Amino acid sequence: PAVCAGNYPLYIRSVPTENELKFHYTVHTSLDVVDEKISAMGKALVDQRELYLGLLYPTEDYKVYGYVTNSKVKFVMVVDSSNTALRDNEIRSMFRKLHNSYTDIMCNPFYNPGDRIHSRAFDTMVNSMMMQVC
Amino acid sequence: MEQGPAGGSGPAAAAAAAAAGTGGLLLPLSETEQQRYSELFSRCCPPPEAAAGGSSVGELFRASQLPPDTLHQITEVCGAKRVGYFGPAQFYIALKLIAAAQSGFPVRIESIKNELPLPRFMALKNDTEVRYGTPAEFHGVKFQVPHATLEKNSYKRADEGDKQEPKSPPMSPICSPPASPSTYQRIAQSYGYGKARSGLEQQHGAPYEVRHSTHQQDGPSSGNYGAKSALTCSTPNRSLAVEREQQDSSSQYSDDPWRITEEQRDYYINQFRSLQPDLNAFISGSVAKNFFTKSKLPIPELSHIWELSDVDCDGALTLPEFCAAFHLVVARKNGYQLPETLPETLLPEYLQAACLKPVRDCALFDSYSEPLPSSQQTRDFSRAEKSSAEEVPDNSALLQDGKKDDKQAVKVSTTLKTIPKEFQHLTVKAAAQEPNAHRARPRSRSYSSTSIEDAMKKGEEPPTPPPRPQKSHSRASSLDLNKIFQQNTQAVRSGWLPPPPPALPPRPSVSQEVVLAQPPSKPARRKLRTEAQGLETPELSPTINVTSSLPAVKPHLPVQKQSSKQKRAIQTAIRKNKEANAVLARLNSELQQQLKVRNALKISDKAPCNQFCVTSSSIEIRAKNRTVVEISTEMKAFNENTLPSFLQQASAVTCVLQHEKTEKFV
Question: Looking at the predicted complex, does its ipTM rise above 0.90?
């Protein structure tokens, strides 16, 4: 999963650490898809439903899911396609947890929006979430 | 008690025994470790016994603050379970394992082969001295210098510890007393942040030091290995603890660096008062940030401290949270590593019980068991209740308070709008959106605000129809407008529809959606809405953003952290807020509409009314524009402001707007 704001990543974490560069690249390219989805909504309603962008695009062996917050902070998640046990609901709940943790970080007055995220609580949450899946 | 040299020879034999005992495992013990372990061993089992008493060993292990499972593991690994007693070999291995566990290594034989720091035992005062030149002076009783206050001293010593470690380890008892005063002097200088606080602690430390220096050995004065001074583990020492007159009774039990003593608490409370006179109110994030930045700790650490102490994640610190944060800062400044999770003694409900009830009794222990969420919930719920009850008075209160009660007003406004956490979240969101919005101003704002508002309207329409028309009638302008509309024909009204879309081209679809979404509403409301649909000004949208993004945030947070009762209360508060904002927005658009319509409108028999209305509306519009300009300038200045102050400004402006409207038309 990656948290990106303004098209630069605030936070990237991947579990199997090989191919990390490939994941980074994937996340970056998927940002384009996210932007496209956002703009396609136009003046449409933005509620929580739309915050979850769903499967952005399936590629060879992994799927990319996107989620955007009201403040245009994007969460991108790349999962292995072999992990068929992951259902849409689970992805949604993972994004929801990410969003909640992100808002908790926001509360911290020492955190400036746009900084990289160093919060240990956030790390713990992300790690536990990824461990659950992998 | 044993003498130094004797102790020196002992460990050598013990090391060999350790080697033998563990089936050939050669356990290298450094000299310091040897001395330390031998001292500990002798404490647990007075020589010439070969085995340490089980109970004292158990107490010692518990004092290491490791979880019971780890201690069991250690006992197993070191072989004590196997042989059934704690011989010197097992004891030393166990000590090494404790050190390993405290350093974060798994409890295994392999991990103790490396160089390890000495194990730290809370219960044993002075144990953690690295240089233990003369474990000899084990005048056990005197030795256990009443820690706890010295817990504070040891904070400072921790600073010095690293400096002094490189020096040669053994220090004769003779040179220790002189060392201690100098140590303290150094500490006094290095601890700039504490100001009065260090003086406080120094006072505690110095008298003790003086008192005990005569028969003191180097232990306590010398550098600290992350000393967590605490109660002694043996009964004679405990009796000594009573001797310490300066020590507060509340901290007598289980002193650890994460427990706040009375003096510390009083100091924190005074500091809190200096920032925020009302002890029951909050310190906002920006204020706290400035305050803690003065401590010159690096920002990531301050960020971590905040994360630990702000348990309800609302961007503000209550008194217990503030005490916890301050305590963590102090501990960090004294060299303690920040924990990963908040220690129990720093949890807000624990501290709250302690802070609010100055009576020190062991009932404080009971607060340990109080579950955090429930206390949090009750607190939030009370806030939410307060919010719904005090919404109206708060509006005026906000205006009157002005700058003086900044923080309180912020908090009041947060309770006014919604639960504080969500409010902070959405101000962040609104704020974070701001920079983006600046770049793509009309589109993004309209996109987010109106759509959110529509969603919000949709959400709130069915449940609360009754209050709304009342609200709209409370605004005198809407009353007049209603009259106007009643006179006007449907044609005129529909005639207005074409003008709005061109006025704000980006929003035609939105306006239509608004119309479609509102069929169940009351007639007055509908009329207001139709004319207002296209005319919501971009300038007003930021304020709408602030509260409109509530519903987006709302689904996340209540799911996780609020009870259903609170959810309902919060949702009603949210709805009321949304209504207020929606009405404000419509009002603005109405006024603009009126201005345009003034010339087109044929004066009917209600001419005076209309004229009055129209002229007053033009005044309104001008006033509104002024405030809107203020809003927009504040928006631009947001990047410098922190979130709560932005919030406060936005809310203040909103209320000013409200007030102006009501005043003019009444």
Answer: no
